[in-house]
Amino acid sequence: MAAPKIEKLLTPYNFTNKDNAGRIKYIVIHYVGALGGAEANCKYYASKYLGASAHYFVGFNGEVWQSVEDEDIAWHCGASSYKHAECRNSNSIGIEMCVRNKGSQSAESKDWYFEEATVNAAIELTKYLMQKYGVPASNVIRHHDVTGKICPNPYVYNSTKHTWDAFKKAISGGTEQKDSMTKITGKSEATAEQMTAYIKAKNGSVAQSVLDMIPLYLSEGEAENIRGDIAFAQSCLETGNFTFSGSAVELSQNNFCGMGVTQNGETGNSFKTPQLGIRAQIQHLKAYANTTKLKQECVDPRFDLVSRGCAPYVEYLGIQENPKSKGWAAGAGYGEKILKILDAIKETGSSQAGDGSPKPDETKKDDDFKEYLITTTCDVLNIRSGAGTDNKVVGAIREVAGKKNKYTIVEEKNGWGRLKSGAGWISLSYTKKVAASTGTTFTPYLITTTCDVLNIRSGAGTGYSVVGAIREVAGKKNKYTIVEEKNGWGRLKSGAGWISLSYTKKAS
Ligand SMILES: [Zn+2]
């Protein structure tokens, strides 16, 4: 399906740099919970560090604004405790739906509702992302399903004309995708040792050159975020476990996937080196698996012949099983045959002792480091691309004296700290550690305004729309209760909205 029109205004602050689309397993639906539109939200999240974000905002007229790249992690469903066993920021895409309100704007109000255009565009965007990343309908869930939060409010109460049931039906329409399918995009699960053990067991006289090239399946796969173990299993199928008996190609062609053998009697493509042959196979798989651009130069002579993204799953590589009747091979059950081999490969290593190969997804660096919050002790602090003054300045934290924001450090090196936002590194000599203050420990307090008219906005920042105002007669100030703080803004207990705390003072 064609991509919906997407406006991009990426936030430089509010995301974790990951550059890995293979991480995407879930799509989480939210509502904005305030009255701003998609563009205004996108601009606000791009304006400064907020400690929260989403990949997309879907607006009142169906317009779509993107704030964080799919490959990177947005901070949309993080929590201290979860209802969902697996879905997290790290393996999901977050979509925020803009919302209207006809009365009370409290979180538990039944006055929130969606515009038809917002719902339709959110469905279209979700379906597009599902197909692009092979996310099944069962993995499209609400923020509510992840943490229990009443979000998206109209899809938790289901008391307006738009219900969650209807949304799920709409995205499930047509080609129902099963949970159990195997995505071609992503990281290998089998190791080179397992593949080597498997092929030796199946083909006692396997050529040494074949054993030598097995790691290339993993490295070439990783380069394009395609599962190299699936490619290897496919090669086992196409070459008769590298015996090439009954195969149209021979070992010297470096063509391990029957590429170009479209009818009997053809000899297929040849490649200069095993590496190029494997690279072509990986690229050809990628052509089927998704619509992401190639990272390396294209060496697959048949890449452009593929209808991109028509087979996100191994199961769909067989034309007979593919809902669009497209695919790599015509024979019945082609994908199932590959998966049977893949399962056998994965079992090979697991039954052997001493297979201590690390899982590819784990980085030990961040695991034992406990992230913490800091504020700066100077007005302007350079952000650099690495830990040290010999690295390039890529930005700066600028603070107004007396009003310091908090930043999260996720890694330390030589007295430098890496910012969680992905912006870069700062010298820790100009910072001090501070305690986290949001959420559970917040004590509500009273304020009076220090001006005659103070705007109330739908969110914490001038990027949100004005929804009202506090108007006071000089000399007669009312007191208001602040129940939450964010970036110098305070949320009114009344549910009316947010006010800038710069124009208030604490009252008793
Ligand atoms: Zn939410």
Helix content: 10-25%
Annotated CATH topology of the largest domain: Lysozyme-like
Write out the strand line-up for the largest beta sheet, numbering strands in chain order.
Answer: 1-4-3-5-2-8
How many individual helices? Answer: 11
**What ranges have pLDDT less than 50 throughout 5 or more consecutive residues?**
175-179, 350-367
Query: Mind telling me the CATH superfamily name of the largest domain?
Result: Peptidoglycan recognition protein-like
Characteristics of this structure?
SH3 type barrels, binds zinc ion, alpha+beta, single chain, 508 residues, 5-stranded antiparallel β-sheet, 4 domains, Lysozyme-like, 19% strand, 6-stranded mixed β-sheet, 11 helices, Lysozyme, 22 strands
Describe the structure.
This protein is an alpha+beta fold. The chain folds into four domains: 6-172, Peptidoglycan recognition protein-like (Lysozyme-like); 192-350, Lysozyme (Orthogonal Bundle), CATH 1.10.530; 364-436, SH3 type barrels (Roll), CATH 2.30.30.40; 442-507, SH3 type barrels (Roll). It has eleven helices and 22 strands. The chain has helices at 38-47, 116-133, 143-147, 153-157, 164-172, 192-202, 208-224, 228-238, 274-289, 334-350, 364-367, and strands at 6-8, 26-31, 56-58, 64-66, 92-97, 100-101, 112-113, 140-142, 372-376, 380-384, 393-398, 407-413, 416-419, 425-427, 431-434, 445-449, 453-457, 466-471, 480-486, 489-492, 498-500, 504-507. A six-stranded mixed β-sheet has the order 1-4-3-5-2-8. Strands 14-13-12-9-15 form a five-stranded antiparallel β-sheet, with no helix packed on it. Strand 19 and strand 20 (489-492) form a beta hairpin. Helix 6 (192-202) crosses helix 10. The structure holds zinc ion. Residues 30, 143, 149, 151 line the site of zinc ion.
